[in-house]
Amino acid sequence: MAERTINGVEQIKKEEKSMLTFKEKIYINPVPTKTHAYLVADIGGTNANFGVFKNVRGAARLLYSVHFKSQEITRFTDVMQQVLSHARDTYQLEIKVACIAAAGVIQKKRTYVKPTNLNLPIDTAEIVRETTLDCGHLTNDFEVIGFGLRLISSDSLSKVNDGRPEQFANKAVLGAGTGLGKCILVWHMGHDHYIPVASEGGHADFVAHNELDLELIHFIQKKENFTCPVSWEQLLSGNGIQRMYAFFKSKNNAAKSHPQLSSHGLAPDEIFNSRHMDEHSWRTFELYSQIYARCAKNFALDALALGGLYIAGGIASKNLPLFEREHFMREFTSCGKMHHILMQIPVYVITDYNISLYGAAEYMRIQDLCE
Predict the structure, then answer these.
(1) CATH of domain 154-351
(2) Over the stretch 140-151, which tens digit does the pLDDT of each residue have?
(3) Which of 32, 263, 294, 357 is 20–30 Å from 217 (CA)?
């Protein structure tokens, strides 16, 4: 796999000042040229990822992907035009159909969404009207992860709990990043595959278990002037990591932040990476793991996910020790009457960053989109 950073201004259209810089990863080298392909996208609050696929002997093959910073995008249709122009000008690829996955509630006709943590409306009618696409389709970002599970290898799953999965039983997917997404997978006998069902459960209320939890809730509500309950997302997202760190620091100002952390700021990755050198980072890491386990436990019970629980998202894949410590499974199975049920549920962390792109491609195939 080759990787390169491409400056859109210099290498695509020098006369277009609005072109954004992006990174490109090539998976089939050389990239096939002068052929038909299709486009999928996964649009999150931090990253906007696009994948160009071609069907080879009935299987979806990822040719290359391009990656933008979501906060740099001011108009989504313009970025779609840039991606399509790059495919045409660099590889002579003809792309006429696209599937875009985004966080949030997708409009019933699947043509419009305002992503939850991004001020960037996506309108496929506008995209088709202003680009060379003939068809564009929208879907939920965690729906496509559900479809993508069948396409990733076992090497892309880090096992947290063996369990004893039941055939055809429900599965559940959740994952934290800029936000917190969820979906439930239900087996469909007629279609002979799982159907992902989108959820906005990440915005459900976080429930305190003890005095420390209550202190954390009150700290966040006061500091950020919240007028509504604190949600799971507000604790398990990247911003949640920063909130927990600030909370622990407020409780013990005598313990100074580690100089390395202070010099790099309070980015979520830096907080976790400094946990062995910084007391506040360590306490944040421990509490975050416990709260993630509680959220996963509640969702597994809500979905009766006897087929397995899958943890997605950038925070999980970059921080596997969160789930490898015995504290996670102890918290996950702490449930009185349901302890034995929870012990039975296999738990995995998804480590393949491209699962959403594969899932969007699979979604297009299964649903016969744009046919």
Answers:
(1) 3.40.367.20
(2) 999 999 999 999
(3) 263
